[in-house]
Design brief:
Chain lengths: 195, 195
DNA sequence: CACAAATGTAAGCAAGCACTTGCATTAAAA
DNA sequence: TTTTAATGCAAGTGCTTGCTTACATTTGTG
Protein backbone atom coordinates (compact mmCIF):
# COMPACT_ATOMS: atom_id res chain seq x y z
CA UNK A 1 0.00 0.00 0.00
CA UNK A 2 2.87 2.39 0.64
CA UNK A 3 6.52 2.42 -0.24
CA UNK A 4 7.49 6.05 -0.61
CA UNK A 5 7.05 7.62 2.83
CA UNK A 6 7.52 11.15 1.54
CA UNK A 7 4.41 10.98 -0.61
CA UNK A 8 2.32 9.64 2.23
CA UNK A 9 3.54 12.32 4.61
CA UNK A 10 2.88 15.09 2.15
CA UNK A 11 -0.70 13.89 1.86
CA UNK A 12 -1.17 13.65 5.62
CA UNK A 13 0.20 17.12 6.19
CA UNK A 14 -1.99 18.64 3.52
CA UNK A 15 -4.97 16.84 5.02
CA UNK A 16 -4.38 18.25 8.47
CA UNK A 17 -3.77 21.76 7.24
CA UNK A 18 -6.86 21.91 5.07
CA UNK A 19 -9.21 20.20 7.48
CA UNK A 20 -8.12 22.40 10.35
CA UNK A 21 -9.27 25.38 8.32
CA UNK A 22 -12.43 24.14 6.72
CA UNK A 23 -13.47 21.04 8.61
CA UNK A 24 -13.70 17.46 7.50
CA UNK A 25 -16.74 17.59 5.24
CA UNK A 26 -15.79 20.73 3.38
CA UNK A 27 -12.31 19.56 2.54
CA UNK A 28 -12.27 17.62 -0.72
CA UNK A 29 -9.82 14.94 -1.74
CA UNK A 30 -9.13 16.93 -4.88
CA UNK A 31 -8.02 19.91 -2.80
CA UNK A 32 -5.83 17.73 -0.66
CA UNK A 33 -4.18 16.26 -3.74
CA UNK A 34 -3.54 19.72 -5.12
CA UNK A 35 -2.07 20.98 -1.86
CA UNK A 36 0.11 17.90 -1.50
CA UNK A 37 1.34 18.18 -5.08
CA UNK A 38 0.05 14.72 -5.81
CA UNK A 39 -2.53 13.17 -8.05
CA UNK A 40 -5.91 12.49 -6.50
CA UNK A 41 -5.79 8.74 -7.21
CA UNK A 42 -2.59 8.48 -5.23
CA UNK A 43 -4.51 9.42 -2.12
CA UNK A 44 -6.91 6.55 -2.56
CA UNK A 45 -4.13 4.14 -3.41
CA UNK A 46 -2.44 5.05 -0.16
CA UNK A 47 -5.34 5.35 2.24
CA UNK A 48 -8.38 3.77 0.62
CA UNK A 49 -11.03 6.21 1.81
CA UNK A 50 -11.26 9.76 3.08
CA UNK A 51 -12.19 8.52 6.53
CA UNK A 52 -9.17 6.26 6.82
CA UNK A 53 -7.06 9.15 5.61
CA UNK A 54 -8.03 11.30 8.58
CA UNK A 55 -7.52 8.42 10.97
CA UNK A 56 -4.04 7.92 9.60
CA UNK A 57 -3.32 11.61 10.05
CA UNK A 58 -4.40 11.44 13.67
CA UNK A 59 -2.40 8.34 14.43
CA UNK A 60 0.67 9.75 12.83
CA UNK A 61 0.69 13.11 14.57
CA UNK A 62 -1.06 12.45 17.81
CA UNK A 63 0.59 13.68 20.95
CA UNK A 64 1.22 11.18 23.70
CA UNK A 65 0.53 11.62 27.37
CA UNK A 66 2.93 14.45 27.87
CA UNK A 67 0.88 16.05 30.59
CA UNK A 68 0.87 12.91 32.69
CA UNK A 69 4.62 12.78 32.55
CA UNK A 70 4.78 16.39 33.66
CA UNK A 71 2.72 15.69 36.76
CA UNK A 72 4.85 12.72 37.70
CA UNK A 73 8.17 14.43 37.33
CA UNK A 74 8.10 18.15 36.78
CA UNK A 75 6.32 19.57 39.84
CA UNK A 76 8.21 20.78 42.86
CA UNK A 77 5.67 21.54 45.57
CA UNK A 78 5.74 25.31 45.12
CA UNK A 79 2.25 26.41 44.16
CA UNK A 80 3.13 29.45 42.11
CA UNK A 81 5.97 27.78 40.24
CA UNK A 82 3.99 24.63 39.61
CA UNK A 83 0.91 26.41 38.27
CA UNK A 84 3.18 28.38 36.00
CA UNK A 85 4.84 25.24 34.68
CA UNK A 86 1.46 23.61 34.19
CA UNK A 87 -0.05 26.50 32.33
CA UNK A 88 2.96 26.93 30.08
CA UNK A 89 3.22 23.25 29.27
CA UNK A 90 -0.48 23.03 28.61
CA UNK A 91 -0.44 25.84 26.08
CA UNK A 92 2.65 24.41 24.46
CA UNK A 93 1.07 21.05 23.92
CA UNK A 94 -2.26 22.43 22.81
CA UNK A 95 -0.65 24.85 20.43
CA UNK A 96 1.52 22.18 18.91
CA UNK A 97 -1.58 20.10 18.21
CA UNK A 98 -3.94 22.90 17.48
CA UNK A 99 -4.82 21.74 14.02
CA UNK A 100 -5.86 18.26 15.06
CA UNK A 101 -7.88 19.75 17.89
CA UNK A 102 -9.51 22.17 15.51
CA UNK A 103 -10.61 19.32 13.28
CA UNK A 104 -12.20 17.37 16.09
CA UNK A 105 -13.91 20.46 17.47
CA UNK A 106 -15.54 21.30 14.17
CA UNK A 107 -16.84 17.76 13.92
CA UNK A 108 -18.92 16.25 11.19
CA UNK A 109 -21.64 13.74 10.55
CA UNK A 110 -19.18 11.13 9.35
CA UNK A 111 -16.15 11.77 11.52
CA UNK A 112 -14.54 8.61 12.90
CA UNK A 113 -15.35 8.07 16.57
CA UNK A 114 -11.72 7.80 17.53
CA UNK A 115 -11.26 11.35 16.34
CA UNK A 116 -14.38 12.71 17.98
CA UNK A 117 -13.48 11.56 21.47
CA UNK A 118 -10.40 13.71 21.29
CA UNK A 119 -12.23 16.95 21.88
CA UNK A 120 -14.36 15.93 24.82
CA UNK A 121 -11.69 14.01 26.72
CA UNK A 122 -9.17 16.74 26.35
CA UNK A 123 -9.92 18.90 29.39
CA UNK A 124 -11.01 16.08 31.70
CA UNK A 125 -7.68 14.33 31.93
CA UNK A 126 -5.75 17.33 33.11
CA UNK A 127 -8.45 18.27 35.56
CA UNK A 128 -8.12 14.96 37.42
CA UNK A 129 -4.37 15.25 37.69
CA UNK A 130 -4.59 18.81 38.93
CA UNK A 131 -7.25 17.91 41.48
CA UNK A 132 -4.97 15.20 42.91
CA UNK A 133 -2.12 17.66 43.08
CA UNK A 134 -4.24 20.22 44.94
CA UNK A 135 -5.41 17.58 47.40
CA UNK A 136 -1.85 16.63 48.18
CA UNK A 137 -0.81 20.25 48.57
CA UNK A 138 -3.78 20.89 50.80
CA UNK A 139 -2.83 18.02 53.11
CA UNK A 140 0.58 19.65 53.42
CA UNK A 141 -1.00 22.93 54.39
CA UNK A 142 0.25 24.64 51.27
CA UNK A 143 -3.20 25.24 49.78
CA UNK A 144 -6.58 26.14 51.25
CA UNK A 145 -8.70 23.13 52.07
CA UNK A 146 -11.99 23.42 50.26
CA UNK A 147 -12.96 22.02 46.89
CA UNK A 148 -9.99 20.79 44.84
CA UNK A 149 -12.18 19.28 42.10
CA UNK A 150 -13.88 22.53 41.25
CA UNK A 151 -10.75 24.57 41.76
CA UNK A 152 -8.95 22.36 39.28
CA UNK A 153 -11.90 22.64 36.92
CA UNK A 154 -11.77 26.42 37.09
CA UNK A 155 -8.08 26.54 36.29
CA UNK A 156 -8.53 24.06 33.46
CA UNK A 157 -11.48 25.78 31.90
CA UNK A 158 -9.72 29.12 32.07
CA UNK A 159 -6.79 27.79 30.08
CA UNK A 160 -9.02 25.83 27.76
CA UNK A 161 -11.07 28.96 27.06
CA UNK A 162 -7.91 30.91 26.37
CA UNK A 163 -6.76 28.28 23.94
CA UNK A 164 -10.06 28.10 22.07
CA UNK A 165 -10.25 31.87 21.83
CA UNK A 166 -6.82 32.03 20.26
CA UNK A 167 -7.74 29.14 17.99
CA UNK A 168 -10.72 30.90 16.46
CA UNK A 169 -9.58 34.48 16.64
CA UNK A 170 -9.25 36.26 13.34
CA UNK A 171 -6.49 38.60 14.36
CA UNK A 172 -4.00 36.33 16.07
CA UNK A 173 -3.71 36.88 19.78
CA UNK A 174 -0.03 37.60 20.17
CA UNK A 175 2.40 35.31 21.93
CA UNK A 176 3.08 38.15 24.31
CA UNK A 177 -0.55 38.52 25.33
CA UNK A 178 -0.61 34.81 26.03
CA UNK A 179 2.43 35.08 28.27
CA UNK A 180 0.95 38.03 30.10
CA UNK A 181 -2.22 36.09 30.59
CA UNK A 182 -0.42 33.03 31.89
CA UNK A 183 1.58 35.01 34.42
CA UNK A 184 -1.28 37.15 35.67
CA UNK A 185 -3.78 34.29 35.84
CA UNK A 186 -1.33 32.09 37.71
CA UNK A 187 -0.75 34.97 40.11
CA UNK A 188 -4.50 35.24 40.61
CA UNK A 189 -4.93 31.56 41.31
CA UNK A 190 -1.91 31.42 43.58
CA UNK A 191 -3.33 34.18 45.73
CA UNK A 192 -6.78 32.64 45.70
CA UNK A 193 -5.54 29.19 46.66
CA UNK A 194 -3.01 30.20 49.26
CA UNK A 195 -4.12 29.49 52.85
CA UNK B 1 -41.78 36.39 -0.20
CA UNK B 2 -43.54 35.42 3.04
CA UNK B 3 -47.08 35.49 4.25
CA UNK B 4 -47.52 32.59 6.64
CA UNK B 5 -45.20 33.26 9.59
CA UNK B 6 -45.69 29.82 11.04
CA UNK B 7 -44.18 28.12 8.02
CA UNK B 8 -41.17 30.39 8.03
CA UNK B 9 -40.57 29.89 11.73
CA UNK B 10 -40.80 26.14 11.44
CA UNK B 11 -38.13 26.25 8.79
CA UNK B 12 -35.87 28.52 10.81
CA UNK B 13 -36.14 26.36 13.91
CA UNK B 14 -35.39 23.19 12.00
CA UNK B 15 -32.41 24.91 10.41
CA UNK B 16 -30.93 25.92 13.74
CA UNK B 17 -31.48 22.53 15.33
CA UNK B 18 -29.95 20.57 12.49
CA UNK B 19 -27.03 22.89 11.85
CA UNK B 20 -26.13 23.02 15.52
CA UNK B 21 -25.66 19.26 15.40
CA UNK B 22 -24.04 18.71 12.07
CA UNK B 23 -22.69 22.04 10.95
CA UNK B 24 -23.66 24.21 8.02
CA UNK B 25 -22.21 22.23 5.14
CA UNK B 26 -23.41 18.85 6.27
CA UNK B 27 -26.99 19.95 6.76
CA UNK B 28 -29.02 19.59 3.57
CA UNK B 29 -32.05 21.59 2.57
CA UNK B 30 -33.89 18.32 2.08
CA UNK B 31 -33.29 17.37 5.70
CA UNK B 32 -34.43 20.78 6.88
CA UNK B 33 -37.61 20.47 4.85
CA UNK B 34 -38.30 17.04 6.33
CA UNK B 35 -37.69 18.22 9.88
CA UNK B 36 -39.85 21.28 9.38
CA UNK B 37 -42.67 19.25 7.84
CA UNK B 38 -42.51 21.31 4.71
CA UNK B 39 -41.71 20.78 1.06
CA UNK B 40 -38.18 21.55 0.03
CA UNK B 41 -39.24 24.14 -2.53
CA UNK B 42 -40.99 26.11 0.15
CA UNK B 43 -37.62 26.78 1.74
CA UNK B 44 -36.30 28.35 -1.41
CA UNK B 45 -39.47 30.31 -2.00
CA UNK B 46 -39.11 31.79 1.47
CA UNK B 47 -35.40 32.38 1.73
CA UNK B 48 -33.92 32.10 -1.74
CA UNK B 49 -30.67 30.36 -0.86
CA UNK B 50 -29.25 28.23 1.91
CA UNK B 51 -26.93 31.04 2.89
CA UNK B 52 -29.72 33.56 3.27
CA UNK B 53 -31.62 30.97 5.24
CA UNK B 54 -28.95 30.80 7.91
CA UNK B 55 -28.67 34.57 8.00
CA UNK B 56 -32.39 34.82 8.57
CA UNK B 57 -32.16 32.28 11.36
CA UNK B 58 -29.44 34.33 13.03
CA UNK B 59 -31.28 37.60 12.68
CA UNK B 60 -34.48 36.14 14.00
CA UNK B 61 -33.07 34.48 17.07
CA UNK B 62 -30.04 36.55 17.86
CA UNK B 63 -29.72 37.82 21.35
CA UNK B 64 -29.41 41.55 21.73
CA UNK B 65 -26.93 43.33 23.90
CA UNK B 66 -28.16 41.84 27.10
CA UNK B 67 -24.75 41.90 28.70
CA UNK B 68 -24.32 45.58 28.04
CA UNK B 69 -27.61 46.30 29.73
CA UNK B 70 -26.52 44.22 32.69
CA UNK B 71 -23.37 46.27 33.15
CA UNK B 72 -25.26 49.55 32.95
CA UNK B 73 -27.96 48.63 35.41
CA UNK B 74 -27.49 45.40 37.30
CA UNK B 75 -24.21 45.86 39.16
CA UNK B 76 -24.08 47.15 42.71
CA UNK B 77 -20.44 47.75 43.60
CA UNK B 78 -20.02 44.61 45.67
CA UNK B 79 -17.31 42.50 44.02
CA UNK B 80 -18.52 39.07 45.05
CA UNK B 81 -22.15 39.75 44.28
CA UNK B 82 -21.38 41.40 40.99
CA UNK B 83 -19.10 38.62 39.74
CA UNK B 84 -21.79 36.14 40.68
CA UNK B 85 -24.42 38.06 38.76
CA UNK B 86 -22.11 38.38 35.80
CA UNK B 87 -21.21 34.72 35.68
CA UNK B 88 -24.80 33.57 36.05
CA UNK B 89 -26.11 35.94 33.43
CA UNK B 90 -23.32 35.00 31.05
CA UNK B 91 -24.09 31.30 31.24
CA UNK B 92 -27.78 31.99 30.92
CA UNK B 93 -27.33 33.94 27.74
CA UNK B 94 -24.79 31.57 26.26
CA UNK B 95 -26.90 28.57 27.05
CA UNK B 96 -30.00 30.11 25.56
CA UNK B 97 -28.08 30.71 22.35
CA UNK B 98 -25.93 27.64 22.41
CA UNK B 99 -27.16 26.32 19.09
CA UNK B 100 -26.36 29.46 17.17
CA UNK B 101 -22.97 29.59 18.81
CA UNK B 102 -22.36 25.98 17.97
CA UNK B 103 -23.05 26.67 14.32
CA UNK B 104 -20.62 29.55 14.13
CA UNK B 105 -17.94 27.62 15.99
CA UNK B 106 -18.10 24.70 13.61
CA UNK B 107 -17.70 27.08 10.72
CA UNK B 108 -17.59 26.30 7.02
CA UNK B 109 -16.02 27.37 3.80
CA UNK B 110 -19.15 29.23 2.73
CA UNK B 111 -20.52 30.56 5.98
CA UNK B 112 -21.75 34.15 5.76
CA UNK B 113 -19.30 36.58 7.32
CA UNK B 114 -21.95 38.06 9.57
CA UNK B 115 -22.31 34.66 11.16
CA UNK B 116 -18.62 33.96 11.45
CA UNK B 117 -17.85 37.11 13.39
CA UNK B 118 -20.19 35.90 16.07
CA UNK B 119 -17.77 33.37 17.47
CA UNK B 120 -14.69 35.54 17.62
CA UNK B 121 -16.36 38.68 18.93
CA UNK B 122 -18.22 36.84 21.58
CA UNK B 123 -15.68 36.89 24.39
CA UNK B 124 -14.14 40.24 23.52
CA UNK B 125 -17.19 42.37 24.21
CA UNK B 126 -17.69 41.16 27.74
CA UNK B 127 -14.00 41.44 28.46
CA UNK B 128 -14.00 45.15 27.73
CA UNK B 129 -16.98 45.83 29.93
CA UNK B 130 -15.53 43.82 32.77
CA UNK B 131 -12.18 45.58 32.46
CA UNK B 132 -13.91 48.95 32.79
CA UNK B 133 -15.79 47.72 35.82
CA UNK B 134 -12.59 46.52 37.48
CA UNK B 135 -10.88 49.81 36.78
CA UNK B 136 -13.69 51.70 38.44
CA UNK B 137 -13.70 49.36 41.41
CA UNK B 138 -9.97 49.70 41.68
CA UNK B 139 -10.16 53.48 41.81
CA UNK B 140 -12.60 53.09 44.68
CA UNK B 141 -10.15 50.87 46.52
CA UNK B 142 -12.44 47.87 46.29
CA UNK B 143 -10.15 45.85 44.04
CA UNK B 144 -6.39 45.40 43.81
CA UNK B 145 -4.74 47.82 41.44
CA UNK B 146 -2.79 45.89 38.87
CA UNK B 147 -3.90 44.66 35.47
CA UNK B 148 -7.67 44.91 34.93
CA UNK B 149 -7.44 43.96 31.25
CA UNK B 150 -5.81 40.62 31.88
CA UNK B 151 -7.82 39.98 35.00
CA UNK B 152 -11.00 40.48 33.02
CA UNK B 153 -9.62 38.26 30.28
CA UNK B 154 -8.93 35.48 32.76
CA UNK B 155 -12.42 35.59 34.17
CA UNK B 156 -13.92 35.68 30.69
CA UNK B 157 -11.85 32.82 29.33
CA UNK B 158 -12.64 30.72 32.35
CA UNK B 159 -16.35 31.07 31.77
CA UNK B 160 -15.98 30.71 28.03
CA UNK B 161 -14.00 27.50 28.51
CA UNK B 162 -16.65 26.18 30.85
CA UNK B 163 -19.34 26.93 28.31
CA UNK B 164 -17.50 25.29 25.42
CA UNK B 165 -16.75 22.22 27.48
CA UNK B 166 -20.40 21.78 28.31
CA UNK B 167 -21.30 22.43 24.67
CA UNK B 168 -19.18 19.59 23.33
CA UNK B 169 -19.39 17.17 26.22
CA UNK B 170 -20.96 13.85 25.43
CA UNK B 171 -22.34 13.19 28.88
CA UNK B 172 -24.03 16.44 29.77
CA UNK B 173 -22.34 18.35 32.54
CA UNK B 174 -25.13 18.72 35.05
CA UNK B 175 -26.76 22.01 35.92
CA UNK B 176 -25.63 21.45 39.47
CA UNK B 177 -21.97 21.11 38.53
CA UNK B 178 -22.28 24.38 36.66
CA UNK B 179 -23.69 26.12 39.71
CA UNK B 180 -20.98 24.70 41.92
CA UNK B 181 -18.41 25.90 39.44
CA UNK B 182 -19.88 29.37 39.27
CA UNK B 183 -19.95 29.80 43.01
CA UNK B 184 -16.49 28.39 43.67
CA UNK B 185 -14.83 30.22 40.79
CA UNK B 186 -16.39 33.51 41.79
CA UNK B 187 -15.16 32.91 45.32
CA UNK B 188 -11.67 32.29 43.93
CA UNK B 189 -11.67 35.48 41.90
CA UNK B 190 -13.14 37.54 44.70
CA UNK B 191 -10.33 36.48 47.01
CA UNK B 192 -7.72 36.99 44.32
CA UNK B 193 -8.96 40.45 43.40
CA UNK B 194 -9.62 41.78 46.90
CA UNK B 195 -7.02 44.29 48.09
C1' DC C 1 19.52 -3.18 -19.21
C1' DA C 2 15.40 -5.40 -17.23
C1' DC C 3 11.89 -5.70 -14.06
C1' DA C 4 8.64 -4.03 -10.67
C1' DA C 5 6.61 -0.80 -7.81
C1' DA C 6 4.88 3.79 -7.39
C1' DT C 7 2.83 7.56 -9.62
C1' DG C 8 0.43 10.28 -13.35
C1' DT C 9 -3.38 10.91 -16.79
C1' DA C 10 -7.90 10.61 -18.49
C1' DA C 11 -12.31 9.25 -18.28
C1' DG C 12 -16.16 8.16 -15.96
C1' DC C 13 -19.78 6.50 -12.50
C1' DA C 14 -23.29 6.75 -9.12
C1' DA C 15 -24.86 9.62 -5.66
C1' DG C 16 -25.87 13.77 -3.52
C1' DC C 17 -26.06 18.62 -3.59
C1' DA C 18 -28.47 23.44 -4.08
C1' DC C 19 -31.72 25.17 -6.77
C1' DT C 20 -35.47 25.66 -10.72
C1' DT C 21 -39.65 24.97 -13.36
C1' DG C 22 -44.45 23.98 -14.35
C1' DC C 23 -48.60 22.64 -12.74
C1' DA C 24 -52.06 21.11 -9.36
C1' DT C 25 -54.08 21.93 -4.77
C1' DT C 26 -55.52 24.30 -0.87
C1' DA C 27 -57.24 28.06 1.67
C1' DA C 28 -57.89 32.58 2.95
C1' DA C 29 -59.33 37.36 1.29
C1' DA C 30 -62.32 40.09 -1.80
C1' DT D 1 -68.23 33.08 -5.54
C1' DT D 2 -64.24 34.69 -7.62
C1' DT D 3 -59.61 35.94 -7.00
C1' DT D 4 -55.11 35.62 -5.01
C1' DA D 5 -51.47 34.02 -2.45
C1' DA D 6 -49.15 30.14 -0.28
C1' DT D 7 -47.98 25.50 -0.54
C1' DG D 8 -47.36 20.67 -2.44
C1' DC D 9 -45.74 17.54 -5.99
C1' DA D 10 -42.87 15.66 -9.67
C1' DA D 11 -39.33 16.09 -12.48
C1' DG D 12 -35.20 17.73 -13.77
C1' DT D 13 -30.66 20.69 -14.31
C1' DG D 14 -26.01 21.37 -13.66
C1' DC D 15 -22.47 20.80 -10.53
C1' DT D 16 -19.55 18.48 -7.15
C1' DT D 17 -18.42 14.65 -4.43
C1' DG D 18 -15.81 10.31 -3.21
C1' DC D 19 -14.09 6.73 -5.56
C1' DT D 20 -12.89 3.40 -9.60
C1' DT D 21 -10.85 1.63 -13.78
C1' DA D 22 -7.55 1.10 -17.46
C1' DC D 23 -3.48 2.45 -19.35
C1' DA D 24 0.79 5.17 -19.83
C1' DT D 25 4.90 7.00 -17.55
C1' DT D 26 8.37 7.52 -14.26
C1' DT D 27 11.59 5.84 -10.85
C1' DG D 28 14.46 3.06 -8.19
C1' DT D 29 16.66 -1.81 -7.79
C1' DG D 30 18.78 -6.17 -9.18
Amino acid sequence: MSANPTTGEKILLATINLMAEKGYDSTTTKEIALAAGVNEVTIFRHFGTKEKLLEAAFNRFHYGNEMTKLFNEGLKGNLHEDLLTLSRTYHNIMNRNRKLISISLKGSSTLPDSVLQEASNNPKHLKNLLAEYLTTMSSQGKVVTSNPEIQALSFMWMNFGAFISRLNAKEAVSEETLNEFIEESVRLFTKALSP
